[in-house]
Amino acid sequence: MDMRLVAAILAAVVVLASAGCSTGQRVDLGQDAGNLIAAIAGEPDQLDPQKTSSYFSFEVLENVFDTLVEPDADLTMRPALAESWQTSPDQLVWTFRLRPGVTFHDGSPFTADDVVYSYRRIIDEELTNVDKFSAVSDVSAVDDHTVRIILSRPTPNLLTNLGGFKGMAIVQRRNVEDGQIATHPIGTGPFSFVSQKRGDSISLRANAQYWGGAPKIPGVTYRFISEPSTALSALQAGEVDWTDAVPPQRVSQLRNDDSVHLAETPSNDYWYLALNEARAPWNDVRVRQAVAYAIDRPSIVQATSYGTAQANQLAIPQGNPWYVPYDRYSRDLERARSLLQEAGAAPESMDLLVTSDYPQTVTAAQVIADNLAPLGITVNIRTVDFASWLDDQNSGRFDMLMMGWLGNIDPDDFYYAQHHTDGASNAQKFSDPRVDALLDAGRTETDHRARKQDYAQAATLIADEVSYLYLYNPAVIQAWTPALSGYQARRDKAIRFRDAVLDSGGADR
Amino acid sequence: MTVLRFLARRLAYSLVVLVGVLTVVFALVHLVPGDPVRLALGTRYTPAAYQALREASGLDQPLISQFFGYLGHAATGNLGVSFRNGEPVTENLLGRLPATVSLALVGIMLALAIALPAGIYSALREGRASDAIVRITSQFGVSVPDFWLGILLISLFSTTLGWLPTSGYRPLLEDPAGWLRHVILPGLTVGVVAAAIMTRYVRSAVLEVTAMGYVRTARSKGLPPRVVTMRHTVRNALVPILTISGIQLATILSGVIVVEVVFAWPGLGRLVFNSVAARDYPVIQGAVLLMAVLFLVVNLLVDLLYAVVDPRIRLS
User: Fold this and answer.
1) I need a surface site. Which of A146, A208, A356, B188 has the fewest CB within 10 A?
2) Range with lowest mean pLDDT among A126-140, A184-198, B35-49, B69-83
3) What ipTM is given for this predicted complex?
4) First CA to last CA across chain B, in angstroms?
5) pLDDT band at residue B42 under the 50/70/90 scheme
6) Which of A 218-277 lie inside 8 A of B, CB atoms?
7) What is the rounded distance in angstroms from the CA atom of residue B271 to the CA atom of residue A139?
8) Mind telling me how many Å the CA of A405 is from chain B's nearest CA?
9) Quick one: DSSP state of residue B160?
């Protein structure tokens, strides 16, 4: 090849490139001009709110769909598509009055039939969230704007079940039946779906007819940036306005950075260890307690989150209305040794199941192995991909495992499936009649104080008996441009842009 | 006629390779532990839903009939539908192709633009200080992890200088200027790493030719050094250079996963990355098949180019 040709091509590239350059310029395609640009850490697998279980999907769909009721910033349930509701004296019949004049994004009216259709779809097709309807025996439309739900037992947390997150969204029958919902969802929310560029971005447009008032921004563009340091650079360069892909090791530096607004809120997520109680010696509560006394939570928090998470010996974080103080365990090796002795157990090895899909489990495993070494326990860390992890969990192939649960609101969601003898997610095979009774009672107890009492007792027992060995609540970490206002980081990690305002003077645009 | 016969033979041979690739990938993907149906359903599901999805995705069939069913469909261009979202795999893959191909072409062009001059220069100054500098630099380039180089480039050119966007992609045909601005940093990342490898090959190819009798003859004829280098040395070193360029291009086409993830580039690599995590067999199989096709096409082009570069080479 001629060297001059190479040089010429190279020169042309440089000239063209610098011609296109100007400082911090945002290249918006016409229809998305002025949109709030949010960087999320991955691409939604699909956009059907009732079928997806991907958080990336919900980051988008939170703004496209509505539920009958929804949690406000304190996680108290407030009216949304339902304006008001009444409960029969026996707590078994709930009548919801729907908001009049609400339309779907395609202009068709929203009526009671849509609510019935949406709920029947979850129940009849046994979708992921069918558990939320376990007490529901009938859903019917009384008239166009009234829905009646009949229960088989009193359910004090019905509102949380119906509106806790957008997995319970009201969908449109036509959108489902023509097979479009997974790729072109139609909702009633503050923004409507416009388009998706595979592997790149999703655009939403403001819904001027939104029942809560038209959003003040013209739309939202979600970009998929899975490398957190890239997302943060894009925010600092003014290419995006908001991101939740913040590298935790950069948090302390960002706290002092005026050019970026950083939000750190303790989340309702929690990470835990569970010992397999179908295997000896972990079936002995004293052995489990010995492990609990050997674990050093502060080190695990430091290693997994650079200190941004909050150590917690129970699931529910401080600040949450259902929080219960509890601090039985702290690292005490003497105590751990004597508990092992009492139990007559001397476990020499432990198979610790973690997954590389959740790197914090791999990191924590190193600390845990070190923590248990003084007890003479050699921890064999087994790192597998998440599909294998689920297989091994469900078939009980582990001594101990580490995992997390995301975004719960009602205590029933925190405890029942995980710790009830018949719980669907009780992989550790915990069984305690006292806990079962309390969790069953909590499901039907309508007196708020008594219910709180039940769950406080249950939570304490669960930790005393080490069904789960709770570790910490990670923080919701989000960063956005100072030009963005009217947005709050929420502890349930719902990303709501409906009230967002972008001050055009702030960012480079 | 020879060219046509050559092409026909190569196509038949490629088909055999493709079936082989498919067999290996199919076996590998299905031998890896982890149940894709369970993963697709999440943590809570009913046995009925599990069975339904298993049947719908054909995973309840014996492996051997799954395999032949897949081969049959693949022959007609139907690579099945994604487990994750039910989208046709063929469409999904073709949608990602422009991003990956344009990144690979820019990468290989930048790599050539660096490796050719550096390698030739280094060879002509064999043993001198400047040769050592090029060799050390290229050794350094080979060892640099591409994600680190990518992050470094972003922090310099985007965050600090504000010249280029950190990430993202614009289609070339819709927005050429935007495409160029977005492709430079990932292209450079890909290109620098490939250049480091190629420089060493260019250097040794040129060195080999320099030792030939005809170069000595040309020199003793009194031809100016420039002419000797360009017309006699480099021209004759082009065949091995072409070989390594082809291999590098094919490697880039099939393996820029890390660079695509760092720069949020919507190409094949990211698709594979996400699909492996989700055990999305149809997408993984389709992507590997497509990569194999790209590899074969590049190799074929390189073989055809041999004859152009060196007329003594016959296609046979």
Assistant:
1) A208
2) B35-49
3) 0.80
4) 11
5) low
6) 223-227, 229-230, 233-234, 236-237, 239
7) 41
8) 11
9) I
